[in-house]
Amino acid sequence: MSKSSYNSRPKYILIPLFGMGLFVVLYILASLNYPGGSWNDVNHKGFSFWNNYLCDLLDKYAINGALNSGRYYARAALGVLCLSLLFLWLNLHKLVTESINTKIMTYSGVLALLTTFFLASNTHDIIVRISGVFGVVAILSLTVEQFKMHYIKLGLLGVTCIVIFLINYYVYETGFYLKCLPIIQKFTFAAFMVWFSILNAMLYCKSDKV
């Protein structure tokens, strides 16, 4: 790979990668400013990595009843993440062969991300279910395309993400091993962000300056 070829690639393609990094930074700030309380211990001081959900940081009031000053960071993080992944999803068709399935992948992914914007509203459970349905369709469609393009390892990573997501959703809906859900949720986020980061890197490597 020549240096000129590397320099010719548009850097804006890496917006999702930078957005995911900023999401992590903002969520750390949100957790540091969270007053306290979790579903296992209302009186716990500050944010508990093991017992608090990421969504707890979005609420106006913390679980202990105090005003949550960390919500501004968390809501900014959510907006940054959704916008970054929206940009990524609108460009993922460039990595696969155009087909009806590709269109389904794009539209369902966009709808999932647009729905997720409203996660900080008072309709949290409904938003999770709606965005979850669109998200599963989008992810399954993308994974199918990856296997069709012989991206076997990437496809297997996609399958892993889907399985983890479904476990997360099953626990959320049934309450089975609910105490483990905060950790499962964070592990789910981490797995998807690794997958998306690889996809963004691939998109960047295949991009050319127009």
Automatic annotation (TrEMBL):
The name this protein goes by in its record: DUF998 domain-containing protein
Looking at the UniProt entry, the stretches that span the membrane are: 12-30, 72-92, 104-120, 126-144, 151-171, 183-205
Give UniProt keywords alphabetically. Membrane, Transmembrane, Transmembrane helix
